[in-house]
Amino acid sequence: MSLFNLKNKSFLITGSSRGIGKSIALHAAKEGAKVIISSRKIDACNATADEINTLIGQEVAFPIAANIGDESQMHSLVDETDKLLGKIDVLVCNAATNPFMGSMMDIPSDSFDKIMHNNIKSNHVLSQLVLPQMKERRDGAIIIVSSIGGLRGSAILGAYNMSKAADIMMVKNIASEFGQFNVRANAIAPGLIRTDFAKALWENPEILKVFTDKVPMQRIGEPEEIAGVALMLASEAGSYINGQTLVVDGGSTIV
Questions:
Q1: H-helix or E-strand spanning residue 187
Q2: Is 148 in contact with 191 (CB distance < 8 Å)?
Q3: Does the CA dihedral 10-13-16-22 come out positive or negative?
């Protein structure tokens, strides 16, 4: 059996109606997993779930709308997932937000609070909710999609980078406490990826050139290139990787 086989595994993936989350869901389903498609809007969740089910040829993707900015909705998301799939083997915290770009002197308090809540607290709450069952089964994986922004400073993305740095520490803490129960927690730190979330960067030719000129591979990444790493971390292929941050950036952080 393939080291990447995910048959009988259940995935809860936030921010999975498009972009990186959607790609992770699709490729996990291709490897035999059942996946929850979740984002704020049910129409988008339905469309993505239908698309995946059509491609796979059977019902493996299930839509549940939830706003990670609302703690009660996160509780409902986990409860509904458990009812639908019976368990949560893999939690992928992919949803995030960045409502402000500019100097740290200018960021409004509500924007700062939103970044910290959606990019840190929501991941913490969701992890709290799934860890008990993972601990009891002595099996589980938590994957947080961080960013290379969490590894370096920025003059225009300060609060966002701070939140992503916290995510990197979060998986270290989870791994330290729950590794003894065969629960693994890891982060993925993408560089610039061709998603709607980062469209303001890669659709601007000048900004795109600045990025690609600094990347040894001379291009930006694709969602599937993050999905591949997520599948490794969720499967037997990554069974001894714990508390780590895997950088997927075409080499931009090495130069």
A1: strand 183-190
A2: yes
A3: negative
- Please choose, from the candidates 68, 61, 59, the residue with its C-alpha nearest in 3D space to the C-alpha of residue 37: 61
Helix axes 223-234, 19-30, angle to 10 degrees: 50
pLDDT of 5 above 90: yes
**Segments making up each domain of the chain, as ranges:** 10-254
> Which residues does the annotation mark as catalytic?
160
Q: Rounded to 10 degrees, what is the CA torsion of 141, 144, 147, 151?
A: -70
pTM of the model: 0.96
pLDDT mean over 54-75: 98
Helix, strand or coil, per DSSP, at residue 10: strand
Which of the following CATH numbers is that of domain 10-254: 3.40.920.10, 3.40.50.720, 2.60.40.10, 3.30.420.100?
3.40.50.720
Helix, strand, or coil here: 93? strand
Please report which confidence band the pLDDT of residue 195 belongs to, taking 50, 70 and 90 as the band edges: confident
Strand partners of residue 140 = 183
DSSP 68: T
The answer to whether 244 touches 232, Cβ cutoff 8 Å, is no
Determine phi and psi for 91, rounding to 5 degrees. -105, 125
